[in-house]
Write a structure and sequence with these properties.
By secondary structure, the protein is of the alpha/beta class. Helices cover about 30% and strands about 35% of the residues. Strands 1, 2, 3, 4, 5, 6, 7, 10 and 11 form a nine-stranded mixed sheet that branches. A four-stranded mixed sheet has the order 12-13-14-15, sandwiched between helices. The mean pLDDT is about 85.
Length: about 375
């Protein structure tokens, strides 16, 4: 009997030693961040936080909401990004959770100052992942966060949070994640492109009132980890033809300003061949594209379409390379290809003064275009 009582007493003590969920928080008692923005003005960092009520997002599963989904934006200031975040804590009312951040956006001022503070912020909060989309902008970040998509849908359905959907339909500027940015920026000889976000209020109207929308209007360029400058969408038209991730992109063939044919070109196969000539390196860029005919305004033979398309792609690639040289950047990744394919030669040239790219470095651009079909259109 005595032994049985002792055993029962021991069994009653064991549950007291088990850990429990004493500090668990209900989901409605936490502020969930969806985006974080960082600016730098007047020698201070400004951190913007975007919060959404996920209960409103969940309700969309039953249909489109009748009222706009509310967006909450916080703003904190400090001498460092950490102190700016701490400034926001004083008014956040509840605990802030970083695990649902889907987008990071910074201003051009931050790029000019350097990205060290952003790295410290990311390392300070381990629940922040490397998967969020990464953008830069010249617009006020708080205004970027207030832009909402169609039909009162959540901002989670906007370009800010789902840029890959637009890219699948028109591949112009490749959206990049934080992980890809950190990986690319540390690669020797590599140019890294950070998409630029802008607000456009003339493209769409809600009833008769202009409704602002987001668009990618260019890229902020880094070369060997250093910020070089910003290029507009029009000046980098050739990037899409040397980006293997391109899904499809339109190409207008015309005479002067008159369009004749519209093509949709897809999935470029790109080869860059370096040729060493003493201390100089010359490159041949070979691009193969396939595609379809989207529109015929003026009759043109299929062979002529392919020829004219190849000529125009070649022209755009060459012009893009030229625009990159203006800001001391290798937009075609020529040096990085040399680093990958002929590393010993790259090390030798790098140790004896480095690479000096010029238009003469681009020895030849070979482009071939193969049109698969014209759909219901009749091609002569």
């Amino acid at each position: 009997m005595v032994g049985g009582r002792k055993w029962k007493s021991i069994c009653l003590i064991f549950p007291l030693l088990l850990t429990g969920c004493w500090d668990i928080k209900d989901i409605q008692d936490v502020n969930y961040l969806t985006s974080i923005g960082i600016d730098y003005k007047d020698h201070q960092f400004i951190v913007y936080l975007q919060l959404l009520d996920f209960s409103d997002v969940a309700k969309m599963e039953t249909g489109k909401p009748l009222q706009p989904v509310p967006v909450w934006i916080g703003q904190g200031r400090g001498d460092t990004t950490i102190s700016a975040v701490n400034d926001l804590y004083r008014t956040s009312q509840m605990r802030v959770f970083y695990g649902h951040i889907n987008t990071v956006i910074v201003s051009e001022n931050v790029l000019k100052k350097g990205l060290k503070e952003i790295d410290q912020l990311r390392h300070r909060y381990p629940e922040m992942r490397y998967t969020p989309w990464f953008f830069a902008t010249k617009e006020p970040i708080d205004q970027i966060f207030t832009v909402t998509p169609f039909f009162n849908l959540s901002p989670l359905m906007s370009l800010l949070h789902q840029p890959q959907e637009s890219y699948k339909q028109e591949s112009i500027i490749y959206p990049i994640t934080s992980r890809e940015f950190v990986s690319d920026i540390n690669e020797p000889g590599r140019a890294t492109f950070l998409p630029s976000l802008a607000i456009v209020d003339q493209a769409w109207k809600k009833d008769k009132k202009p409704h602002p929308m987001l668009k990618m209007d260019g890229v902020f360029v880094f070369q060997d980890g250093k910020y070089q400058g910003r290029l507009t969408k029009e000046s980098i038209s050739g990037l899409r033809w040397v980006e293997p991730k391109t899904q499809r992109s339109p190409l207008i063939i015309g005479s002067g300003r008159k369009p004749q044919v519209v093509l949709s070109l897809e999935k470029p196969n790109v080869k860059i061949i370096p040729q060493i000539k003493g201390m100089r390196v010359e490159y041949t860029v070979d691009v193969k594209l396939s595609g379809n005919v989207s529109e015929i305004i003026q009759p043109m033979s299929e062979r002529l379409m392919e020829k004219r398309a190849a000529e125009q792609v070649q022209k755009e690639i060459k012009q893009t390379f030229k625009e990159g040289l203006k800001i001391h950047s290798d937009l075609l990744q020529l040096e990085h290809t040399m680093y990958r394919r002929k590393n010993k030669d790259w090390k030798k040239i790098y140790s004896e003064g480095g690479f000096k790219q010029s238009m003469e470095s681009l020895q030849e651009i070979k482009v071939s275009v193969k049109l698969n079909n014209a759909g219901k259109l009749k091609v002569p």
